Structure formats: structure tokens, C-alpha cells
Amino acid sequence: MDWRERLRGIASRFRRGGDAVPASDERGGAVAASLRDLLADPSIPADVREAMATDFQRVERMLDRLENEELHVAVFGRVSAGKSALGNALLGRDAFAVGVLHGTTTDADAARLDEAAAAGLTLIDTPGINELGGEAREKLAFEVAEVCDLVVFVADGDLTREERDALRALSTTKRPLLLVLNKSDRYGEDEREGLLSRLREHAAGLIAPEDVMAVAARPAPRDVVEVDAEGHERRSSMPRPPDVAALKDRLLAIAKREGKALSAINAGLFAGRLTDQVSERIAAARRDVASRVIRQYCIAKAMAVALNPVPVADLLLAGGLDAAMVVQLGRVYGLPLTRSESGRLVAVITTQLAALMGAVWGVQLVASALKGLSGGLSVVVTAAAQGALGWYATVLIGRAAEHYLISGKSWGEHGAKRAVAGVVAALDRDSILREAREEILRRLKTGDRRSPP
User: Fold this and answer.
1) How far is CA 78 from CA 153, 196, 280, 306, in A?
2) Which backbone phi and psi does 219 adopt, to 5 degrees?
3) Which of the 8 DSSP states describes residue 239?
4) Is pLDDT larger for residue 20 or for residue 158?
5) 20 to 30 A from 80, CA-CA: which of 19, 175, 229, 356?
């Protein structure tokens, strides 16, 4: 089994209907098994693992969360909207730093909600998204939100443009979202209801109306006036408890009813995207190597065809080089081809290129005939043109064979004709012929007629 099949197999376990994990996997068992498969997959090259080390570390953390049955909730929003204070109010203790200066939270902190210990509900405090000069903090906040299972978006008034953009961006991560109006004690009842209506308008299509609610993480103290027996007034401030009960009840209900499923779905979606990225990186690395192989054979074929003074022998040599190139490309993509298989593949490609290849081979036959009539002296005249056409033909055959191999020895649903036509359309013929002629003339001028290893 090659790397494509292994990664497709892993990715298929994360998707059903395109973008979901099995709903029945509420404890994440199948997803956890797939994560282990992904982490231990021997077909993923070491250089790809190294380049994507951060992503693989995230998968490891997600696997730990699944095994420990944790649900991670990101508290997210604009700087000084009261995210840390809200986290502390929900926890009932001072777990997160709170300050009057902007940007008090500079890193992501985590703390478990005691009332939801059995459900593993853990709050993640994130940096403010609009901290001046805090691009790195904003990036961290989005990263934390992406790998959490649920996001509580905190605002303290009508949403700014930055907040609306952030809310839409978060919605694309497929995380369940709650939107809360913090510091609601600053507003009268009518004003508070008006703000909630505005927030629901902004969140329409992204968040259910019932998941937009008001909270007060640190209500302003209430002024109390006491009058003693002698009629003297004494003013004092009485602290008020946080008003976060509705939000806490909602989080606890989610954790109890679907927390494990959310954690499994989030891990599955992230790992599904990761398998796509791994597959693309492997394919890109293979394409780089394949491009070098195709160029080597372009040079070898162009020089061999251009300078071979023996009629017809140059054409036979060209065909042999095409077949050898396809065999080499099969090795690059981990799908070995025999000589006979490569010959048949070249035949299929040239058949689909009948009109174009007919013109190419027509010129080649005329040039070959001239070699015979002139005893090989016409090489001086035909070398650049014949070699350039041979180069171009090799590029077409190489790219078409590459398409076939990338698709796992398949032309895809549209067949060979459409695939080869797409290859031709994507190539700049004039640019390739110009490059070929320049390279051939350079080699003829310098006397360097060796083909690359």
C-alpha cells in the first residue's frame, strides 16, 4: 500500500458526507484510533514530519484530550472585553490574570471547570485579538480557538469591524460558537436588549439566537447609603456577584450532552485537514523530483535526437528514452512500472496527442530523412529545431505520465483524452521551445553534449 492509499484510508475515517466523523463515535474511539494511525504512519517522509511538526504535536494533544475525555472551550475576543474576568467568574476562582492594562493575557492559559470535572470541560483564556502591535498574540488566539472544541466569543458592546471579521473567520473553523455580551450591568434593560438584538443580527447564520446572551463577569459595586440613628448618612460600596449563571448552565449542558462528540469531531476535522496537507506536501516533493527527472530526459533526448546522424535510429532512441523516463517517474511516485507498462503508457499518451505528435514526428521524419540523404551532414541545420521538438514532446509525455501516477495509476473520472488535453493546455509551448533551443545551442557551442546523470 503506497502513501496515497494509507492517507486516504486515514482521512476517510474522519469524513462522512464530506466533513464529519461518525455521530455514533461519541467517545472518540474510532477517531482516536485514526489519530494513532496518522501519528505512526511509516509512509510519511521524515522531512514532511519535520516541516509539519507543530501540526503533528497538535494531533498528539488532541489524542490526549480524547483519551482523557476533555472538552476545551476557548474564551475569545477583543482586548479588555473581560475574557479573563469571565473565565474566573465561570471557574469561581482567580485562575487567569486580570489587569487594567490592555493585553494582560499574553499567552494561552487553561483551567478546568470544577462543576464539569466529569465532562472534562476546560477553559482556555486567549490574548486579545486587537492588541496594538500584538499580531503574534492575535495569531495565537486564532490558533487556540481552532484547536479548541467550542468558542465563547466575548464582546462588551456592539461588534466592531474587527470583531465581525473575527467572528466570521471563527465560523469557518466549524467550531460551535457562543456570543456573550459582557459588562451588561453597565446598560439599562432596554439598552441591553437592543444590544443583544444587534449581536444576534451580526451572528445570524453563524450562531443560534439562544446562544447569544448577556453576562456580567465583574459587575460594578453597588452604592449603599446607610443612615444611622442620628440621621447621618454613610456611603459605601457593596460588591456584586458575577452574573454568569446562564452561560455556565449552557456550557455544562453542552459538555454533558455532546462534549465527547464535539471533541471527537474537532479532532477528526483537524486531522482530516492535516492528512490532506501531508498528502499535498508529499506530492509537491515528488513533483519537484519529477520535474528534475523530466528535464534530464528532455536534455538527453534533445541532444540524442538532434546529433544522431543515423536515419530512423534517432527516432527509435527517442521512443526508448520516453519509456525509460516513465519508468523513472514511476519510481519517484512510488508506483513502479515495468518496461512494458511504461511502453503502453507512452503509447496511450502519444495516441491522445495524435494531431500534435503527428506534426512533431512529421518534422522528425523529415529531419531523419535529410540525415540519410545528406549522409548526416544536415545535422548542423536540423539539430536545434529537431532537438527542440523532441524536448517539447518529452515534456508533454512526462507531464501526462505524471498526472497518471499522481492519480494512482489512473486517468481519473474524465479519462486519458481529457487529462492529456489538460496537460497540453497548461503548458506554454513557445516558452518550452525557446528554452529548449537556447539550451541545445548553448551545449552545441560549448561542446557539452553529455546528458545529465
Assistant:
1) 9, 17, 35, 68
2) -60, 145
3) -
4) 158
5) 175
